[in-house]
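Dear Dr. V.,

Thank you for agreeing to look over these. As mentioned in my earlier message, I'm a first-year student in the group and I'm still getting used to reading structure tokens, so any feedback on how I've presented them would be very welcome. I ran two proteins. I've put each sequence directly above its structure. The first is here:
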Amino acid sequence: MLKKNYKLLLFVILLIISIPFESLFVIQNPGWNTIIPATDFLEILVFFLILIIVIIYSLIKNRITAFKLFVFHFICCIPLVLYARFNHLLRHLYSNYTNDPTELSHYLGIVAYTSILLFLIGQIFFILLLKRRKP
């Protein structure tokens, strides 16, 4: 049974990781520090995107899909989930190494855009995976 449902199980684990605890229960008021934009909306968006992927995988769990495309899709989804979930930790870690706010925002921008690009590439392969194995 695990062999059939490993795709669904892996994305459910990813969904659990992406649950936006802080974004749903904390009201943030914008303050004087507006150099680094809040990414709480990204947490909620990623949660709903992964939820849609889990629903699609639950609908197609009986269809045989290419293992390599699935692994590539899963690996491409991981960076955005980790960035959306742990962005405050990344900000704290980068701020320890630099005192220049523009350099800090530049590094965080590189991380954000790279993870979003990988996620979009993964979704393209997910669409290819779905179109390749039509019933």
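The second protein is here, in the same arrangement:
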Amino acid sequence: MTPSVLRSRPPDAGAAPAVASQRPRGRLDWHQLLGWLRDDTRVSEDDAQRVAKRFGTARLAA
């Protein structure tokens, strides 16, 4: 991941506030986190698929 991906950006002026019912409860799943990063265009679709494939393979090897 490049440093530019890790920089924070200002919130969108038109973004709706987070609803308490939409907040994750319990442990954060990497699938959900990766989906958020992809949805926010922090990672490309290709990168998201590559990470999902790599994590999925690592899970089988463990």
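From my reading of the second output: The chain has a mean pLDDT of 74. Residues 38 and 53 are 15 Å apart (CA to CA). Does that match how you would interpret it?

Kind regards,
E.
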